Amino acid sequence: METESTIQKNEGEPFEGSPMPAGRSKQSRRLRQNIIFGLLRIAALINGLALAIILWFMIARGWRAISWEFLTQAPTDSMTKGGILPCIVGTLALGIGAMIIAFPIGVASAIFLNEYARSGKVLRIIRLGINNLAGVPSVVFGLFGLAFFVIWLDMGVSLIAGALTLAAMSLPVIIGASEEALKSVPDTYREASLGLGATKWQTIYRVVLPAALPGILTGGILGLSRAAGELAPVMFTAAVFFAPHLPSSIFSEVMTLPYHIYVLATAGTEIEATRPLQYGSALVLIALVLGMNLAAIIYRSRLRNRLS
Amino acid sequence: MATLNSRTREKIIKNIFFCVALACIIMLGLITLFLFMEGIPIFDKVSIKNFVFGVYWYPTSEPPDFGIFALITGSIFVTLLSAAFSIPLGVMSALYLAEIAKPKMREIVKPMVELIASLPSVVIGFFGMVIVAPFLQDAFDIPTGLNLFNAALMLAFMSVPTICSISEDAIYSVPNALREASLALGATRLETIMKVVLPASISGVSTAVILGMSRAIGETMVVLMVAGGAAMVPHSIFDPVRPMPASIAAEMAEAPFRGDHYHALFATGVVLFLFTFVFNIVADIIANKYKQTGDATL
Do residues A88 and A105 share a domain? Predict the structure, then answer.
């Protein structure tokens, strides 16, 4: 980068007689800078270290539990043995269900915000709504899902109630990602299309959306992984301690990985004996979520390199 | 005729998108409505004052006590202590990323911070329970490792990514002309960061801090698994606490449907919702009133 090199060159070479030093010598100013820059580096390092420690513990203690049987069988002996297949299925079903609902709504909202809306009161209110929805605590979404979907709409504790609750929660994530993708489409694309006589909608549908699609899909994957890892919103709306069968319809109750981990770790009758199962489940959940995220992040950075 | 048709069509399409864009506001409205609808009936039994300032939370005893003051203080203390870790760490990491990291390092560290943000909260809660708690118990010789301090640590870890990425965005978008002017006047890079770049991006950084704290106060699974669960006002940072989200998540399953306990938990949800609502409104006001220098997308 150009600026980087200019900054490097100027570093620590104040003009003679400039007012800034104010009694401090050049060396002490340099030293101060080096110490503080060192601290900043350490701060960034702490984050990496913390992530590495968590991943290391989970992998070191979890990998032994993972086997083909663990991934493909249902829990047995009142959940003290066996596998976690129903939990994996339930987690994916909830996440994908939430995306089927939230993705179209989120993308359409982003299209309105970025392509149609002019700055003004309406836009300001919609943005305030999105920001506040993004800030609603996950457990409050759970309460809302219980009161509205489960009880008021009479869906019962079910896959669909959980997916709707998660969809409400992921909406701001999808809108944010889609908006960023739409913004990165250069205006010249739009102008060229409009100049050729296309209408606004034709321009959006044929030119802007295809160009922004990879970025929008990345947002969808991120939303999916967020939804799959959440527990508080589905605790009262979809998840159950134990379900004898795989979910058969959208009105079935489901088991989910996060709930499985929580229940085994806090409320099971044999907390210590099932530790390997807990670590194993946690590792599978991490693999699912981080895998999706990593894929999205790598895909996005490739995309950015291609655009620039 | 044809142009008229396509014009009406365009108008209809625009209006459809407008209606869909209202979904978020409608959701927010529904959430508020149903929280209040299910929460307000408890105030037939206890006054608002006794509910908010009552120190005894014994929802299942006979007669029950519905005072959530201990839960509120639990939430506030956990959030403040976690902020003491997460604000310096988040802002410093953001400064590192935006100001001194080489482009190559940035490419590695930024995705790493995003990965931290994507770790499921139940995994962090589990980690705090089985790894950090026994460690703290030994290291500080305390009766239980499941306490305020542990919960604050775990929450800090969760809110650092929020604080870091929003601050980084704000700091990075300070125009280079400002940096160059300061350097040309003879300031060192550190002096430039402290006296020019940070002041120019302070509104973005404050927004980041507030949103990070709002995330911490609303986080559920971590405090449910790690905070210890005792509904009392803490006297030391190693006391177990029961923040509001933990209380709701732990008790909702066993609260009789539309009983007093059920309504009390919804009312607790209302209080929690109001807390985060205020955080978000303040963040929004700061972001709008003190316009960011440069073009950060907050």
Answer: yes
